[in-house]
Every structure is written in structure tokens, then in C-alpha cells.
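Need C-alpha cells for this chain, all 169 residues.
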Amino acid sequence: MQKIFYASFDSRIGTIHVASTDRGVCKISIPAQTKRDFLAWLQKQTDGAELVESTQRNRQIIDELTRYLDRRLVKFHSRLDPIGTEFQRKVWGELRRIRYGTTISYKELARRVGVANGFQAVGRANGANPLPIVVPCHRVVGSDTRLVGYAAGLKTKEFLLRLEGAIPA
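Here are the C-alpha cells for all 169 residues:
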């Protein structure tokens, strides 16, 4: 039976839950999701894997997220093991190419993944991102540069973009 190692920690934006497999980080939940919902998602997505609480097994990602939120890290190095469809993983891979402190539109993201008119599908994949912040879905904005669509709320999206200097403080 597969084991998923999870931990929770307090951060500048609230409690963050993280989980990893032996291959890498598979889930990050920023404050919009409760621990109960986080664990239920893991159970559902991993076909009932054994959940083991372990801060030690998640030490690197906890440290990186903490340093990022303290403006001491701009690039993550933790191994990732995102849970999603092939199309979602393609979108998430493209999200990782958006440089720190910059934004792109959903339309541009759709063009980059080869589905120029598929910005709604790209938006759904963006919304299903299991690794927010590390896979920076917060860097995607509306075509008119308005802040739209973020699972953890637009205040959190705005905070992250201000933290990175992508929008004025």
C-alpha cells in the first residue's frame, strides 16, 4: 500500500497543509482548505493510501514555502509528484515556466499549451492545481490584467503577487 506523508504548519497566510509520496510533493493546501478536507482529498485521489503524519518527510517543502513567504526564496527545488490528468500536468508544467514576479493571461497560457481557444479548459486545470504557490497558478490573470479565479481567494492571490512584486505594493 502506498504511503502519503502529510504535515501542517503555520505561515504568514495561515495554516498550510502539505503531503508527499516517495516521489515528491503531491499536495499543498493553502488556508482555504481545512485539514479534514485536505485529508479527504488525499484519500480520494490516492485510492485509499495510508496517510502518515510526518513533518520530517515534508521538511524541505515546509522550509521552502516558509522562505518564499518571507521573501527569501524565488525558486522551489523540492521534487514534485502532482496528481492529475495528462492535460492538467501539461498546464501545470507551463505554469512552472512563469517567472517569479511576472504574470500572464489565461489566453496566453492556453496558447502556450497549444490550445489557443481553450482558455476555459486551461482555467479549469489551473483551478485544479494541487500544488499552489510552488506551481504558481496565482501568476495567471485575466486578459485585462484583473485578478480573477483563485481557489484560496483573491486576497491571497493579491498578497502573493504583491509579495513577488508582480503588482504594486
